[in-house]
Amino acid sequence: MKTITDIKGTFKLHNGIDMPYFGLGVYLSDNDKEVIDAVQWALDEGYRHIDTASIYKNEEGVGKAIRNSHVPREEVFVVSKVWNADQGYKSTLKAFEESLKRLQLDYLDLYLIHWPVKGKYNETWKALEKLYTDGRIKAIGVSNFLQHHLQNLMQTSEIKPMVNQMEFHPYLVQQDLIEFCEKHDIQYEAWSPMMQGKIFELSILDDLAKKYEKTVAQIVLRWNLQKGVVTIPKSSKKQRIIDNSNLFDFELSKEDVNYIDALEKNQRLGPDPDNFNF
């Protein structure tokens, strides 16, 4: 059972690096004032984990907000991802340098393969291994990798992924995949924990919100953490960023965690990792 303490708390990755289990996602935040404000508000609130990607087209803004912050760079866990069109060995090395240049940072804390592009992700992984062994990245991982992708990758890799970032919410739990990752010491991480806002339509969660005197969002995010899942809710609204982090003064009972687990419908809101064409 992983310990949850406060907004700056961490889960330890298999290489010994501490990864803050709560962070800010910046998908669809524009590259200028919107993303700069969001990152600065988050850091002011105590967030220490910022997740971006080259395809989000806002790395410049993220980097600027981090550099302008009162928080020292080494205290912020910065994540980016290599996009599908850049996959392959040499092109991934180049894409990484371009991401760092846009962020204007010296290193990344975590770099992920964004999607398992067939016939390419093994070579892409070799590039991540090189960047990791060269000390350019503190940790390396993947995103949207199902069990068979992970198994295929681990057959040829020298270093196994430290993180797998997946779509994860009450309608897509994928407990078997979580357990596979736990068995192999791969940290599970959620994207779209709020179901792109659709969790607020799940009246079934309203009773839990009343019981704990919390919002539905806070219930779901706390559920993420209690399952040992790193979570990075996206918001560009100051109050929502503050509210999302108000998770550390209550704990869901085991029965209520199981109750949310049981909402599983294997229902994706994002693309299927076995069937995407971008």
UniProtKB/TrEMBL annotation:
Cited Pfam families: Aldo_ket_red
Positions of the catalytic residues: Y56 (proton donor)
Alphabetical UniProt keywords: NADP, Oxidoreductase
PROSITE patterns: ALDOKETO_REDUCTASE_1, ALDOKETO_REDUCTASE_2
InterPro entries, A to Z: AKR (IPR020471), Aldo/ket_reductase_CS (IPR018170), NAD(P)_OxRdtase_dom_sf (IPR036812), NADP_OxRdtase_dom (IPR023210)
Gene Ontology molecular function terms on file: oxidoreductase activity, acting on the CH-OH group of donors, NAD or NADP as acceptor
NADP-dependent oxidoreductase domain boundaries: 31-264
NADP recorded as keyword: yes
Site-annotated residues for Lowers pKa of active site Tyr: K81
Sites where the protein binds substrate: H114
Domain of life where this protein originates: Bacteria
Entry similarity comment: Belongs to the aldo/keto reductase family.
Protein name, as recorded: Aldo/keto reductase
UniProt source species: Aquimarina amphilecti
